[in-house]
Amino acid sequence: MRVEYINPFVESAVQILKETVSEDVKRGQLSLRSSIASMLGVVVIVGLAGQVSGRVIIDMDRQTALNIASRMNNEKLTEFDELTCATLTELANMITGKSVTKLHELGFQFDLTPPALLTGEKLQISDSKVETLVVPLELPEGKIEINVGIKEN
Amino acid sequence: MKASSDFPSINAKEADGLKPEGTPYKILIVDDSIFVKKQLSQILQSEQFDIIETAGDGEEAVEKYKEFYPNVDLVTMDITMPKMDGITALEKIMEFDKNAKVIMISALGKQELVKKSLLLGAKNYIVKPLDRKKVLERIVMVLKRT
Ligand SMILES: [Mg+2]
């Protein structure tokens, strides 16, 4: 996978998080993820299809997810109810929507699937066909990992 | 010396949600995300708009519009929704009432759909993330333009 694909996603995530959650977002080191990976506990998956295929996964632990959803609602949320889930999927929509606009400008054409939210203690993602790059983002609310796996068709 | 209350309050701005005669504008919010519904409701209610109803998909939106007509001043319309999308719902509302005021609420990356909706009669659009200033500006602009 070409590294240039991941940048629009990370830049968009940083911009949207700054606008909707916290001004203080620090970008960590890029790394390559192995084909079977453990997730932090709350993942939002958005699929990409078109000229390229693959997926973007936004991964965070449960408390971070609640902290972020609370910030976005200006209200303390303590459980994974409909509002918390709707808030997190909306966050993923905004991030991926912005990224796709940037990628369209670079000439890549593809569409997004609606976000799916999964939660669980021992979530694992396994995919041997698509290489995945990961960039962690640090916020006062906690750590978020942006996983991008894209393959050209 | 006069108490400040004797002066007309030139600084106290009228709430955006009130018509010149003082009654609130009536808004129908259409979105499948309860987060967005809540966000829009809070922004609009803080300016005294009257949220007459919310709908979670296009079918429901068309139904509610017809039910409340002519007592709806403006509709905020999400684009991606289950059952019937916002573009189709917009089309059906415009067929029913060619003077309907519909504002599209869109995520980035949907420029083509936004363009299409403007051609179909949407009066304006707002790109998410929503913030108070942006939402009120666009809505007031559409309501005041007759
Ligand atoms: Mg929607």
Sketch the major β-sheet of chain B.
Answer: 5 strands, parallel
CATH topology of chain A: Chemotaxis protein chec
Number of strands of chain A: 10
The number of helices of chain A is 3
**CATH C-level of chain A:** Alpha Beta
The top level CATH class name of chain B: Alpha Beta
The parts of chain B where pLDDT drops under 50 for at least 5 residues are: none
What would you note in describing this structure?
The complex is a heterodimer of chains A (153) and B (146). Chain A is of the alpha+beta class and 153 residues long. Chain A has one domain (3-152): 3-Layer(aba) Sandwich (Chemotaxis protein chec). Chain A is built from 3 helices and 10 strands. In chain A, the strands form 2 sheets. In chain A, strands 1, 2, 4, 5, 6, 7, 9 and 10 form an 8-stranded antiparallel sheet that branches. A two-stranded antiparallel sheet of chain A has the order 3-8. In chain A, a hairpin with a 2-residue loop joins strand 9 (132-139) and strand 10 (142-152). In chain A, helix 1 packs across helix 3 (82-105) and helix 2 crosses helix 3 (82-105). Chain A is globular and about 45 Å long. Chain B has one domain (24-144): 3-Layer(aba) Sandwich (Rossmann fold). Helices cover 38% and strands 17% of the residues of chain B. Chain B has 5 helices and 5 strands; from the N terminus they run E-H-E-H-E-H-E-H-E-H. Chain B has helices spanning 34-45, 58-68, 86-96, 111-119, 132-144, and strands spanning 26-30, 50-55, 74-78, 102-106, 124-127. In chain B, strands 2-1-3-4-5 form a 5-stranded parallel sheet, sandwiched between helices. Chain B is globular, with a radius of gyration of 16 Å. The model of chain B has no long low-confidence stretch (mean pLDDT 91). The A-B interface holds A 16, 19-20, 72-73, 82-83, 86-87, 89-90, 93-94, 96-101, 104, 112, 114 and B 33-36, 38-39, 80, 107-111, 128-129, 131. Residues 31-33, 78, 80-81 of chain B line the site of magnesium ion.
